[in-house]
Specification:
single chain; 129 residues; alpha+beta; 6 strands; 14% strand
């Protein structure tokens, strides 16, 4: 604190010790505060999550949906097929089951309904366009 006849000036005091235990041994700055090595280790360990190997593997397969914070297991995607192979599979299924909807086709072929729609809207060879 400094003062003269017209004003008083207050300055924030930054101690040289740890903000948690006031120790001056092995302190280092952390976000404009001083923290000692022991307290830093303690803080790190208290926020570190420890998993068993099976739980760690399960955590890798979860996805957090934006804005929801809910973890969902990831679905394994089928290997990508060429368009020609997929067109043939769609043709074969529609020949055998002509009343299938695009959604049902997509579920049977493990592709998105949008991909089925793309295939159904493709121009046939020789069609003008």
């Amino acid at each position: 604190m400094f003062s003269d006849e017209k004003s008083i000036c207050l300055l924030k005091h930054y101690g040289k010790g740890c903000i948690f235990c006031n120790s001056a041994d092995e302190v280092s700055p952390f976000k404009e505060k001083m923290i000692c090595r022991n307290c830093l280790t303690s803080v790190r360990n208290s926020y570190r999550v420890k998993f068993k190997p099976a739980e760690a593997a399960a955590e890798k397969n979860k996805t957090v949906m934006p804005g929801q914070g809910i973890a969902k297991p990831r679905k394994k995607r089928a290997p990508r097929r060429s368009a020609i192979v997929l067109i043939k599979e769609v043709y074969d299924l529609l020949t055998e089951f002509p009343d299938l909807t695009q959604k049902e086709l997509a579920a049977r072929l493990d592709v998105s309904p949008g991909r089925i729609s793309q295939i159904m809207n493709m121009k046939k060879p020789g069609e003008g366009g």
